[in-house]
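idk why but the lab printer keeps eating my pages so im just putting this in chat instead. protein + flavin mononucleotide:
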Amino acid sequence: MKLFDPFNLKGLELSSRIAMAPLTRRRANRAHDPVDCMATYYAQRANCGLIIAEGTSPSPNGVGYSNMPGLYTSHHVKLWKNITDSVHKSGGKIVLQIMHTGRIGHSNNLPDGARIIGPSAIAKKGDTTTYDLGKQPFTMPNEMGTDEVQTTIREFADCAKLAIQAGFDGIEIHSAHGYLPNQFLNQSSNKRKDQYGGNRENRIRFLLEVIQASIQAIGSEKVALRISPFSYADIDEDEGELIALYKMLAEELNQFNLSYLHLSHMGDAKPVKFELWKKLRSIYSGNLMLCGDFTKDTAELALQNGDADLIAFGRDFISNPDLVERLKNNWPLAERDRTHWYTQGPQGLTDYPVYNSMLHK
Ligand SMILES: Cc1cc2nc3c(=O)[nH]c(=O)nc-3n(C[C@H](O)[C@H](O)[C@H](O)COP(=O)(O)O)c2cc1C
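predcted complex ->
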């Protein structure tokens, strides 16, 4: 089977084509420090091809969720280094997902002096948990000035540098699911009048500049990108416009020698998603990773058909630390249990048992 074959990811030797998708688990403390139990959690899952560590903010402005980790201080570097060391000691490879929440957050969750920002002053519908105020509607974002846009681009690149110092094998820029780069892409959240808003070319400018700055900081083969053209966070976008935008983006991406392009929520067979995924595959010449509702069989089929090079699994990695072994041996998977997705401490993080084939004979 291709799924369990080793794969050379621009010089990084992966033991299989199975990636662990980025999974926010909100275990960090209020200073947005990663904590010790995260080292155990990731090391337990190190036998997959590539771990994509949870969405982590490059800036105090980008930690819009409570207990989300950051990577923007030397102290963060030291703490993340413990985590990457434990994964490497267990034989794994790990990249960091850089996630700036932009308008998807609440000011109560930010450190002193930080502020909720976005391309335009348009609040996201819905609410989120806060440290002190219970559930609250998302904060109205401050529209970023052009200078602030450029400062934020530098924050992504600085974070990429810190990630390498912290021992990560690379980074994945989170431009999916409605977070900051995605907010620039979409018309419903970007009404800017400067060079970062308006036509498609302008709306993809922020993301392209984030990619370019990150490449300058750490090299193209260490930079990956995640997108979700049909993100659930911005359902009011025009479908035809989205398709045109993502085709244009895929063409632009060919100029960079990225580690991989990651399409999220492309596993189900809704015709419009399926067609776009095929189209992007035909336009984009680099490595493609797919994620969303894959099983062993559908993952293998996508690889055999040449529709993808790598497959990421999300929810099944939470309750199956030994997911690769279970898939390989056709052992049953533990139930997806949402209870501890976003709770504190090691419970529901590091205490899922591995499958013991002897006990189940
Ligand atoms: C608890 C949880 C946290 C998630 N956190 C992130 C995240 O930090 N970054 C991201 O890009 N996607 C995140 N996702 C989406 C997953 O990476 C993945 O796309 C999704 O679970 C679909 O894959 P699956 O069907 O294999 O679970 C999260 C999903 C879950 C269930």
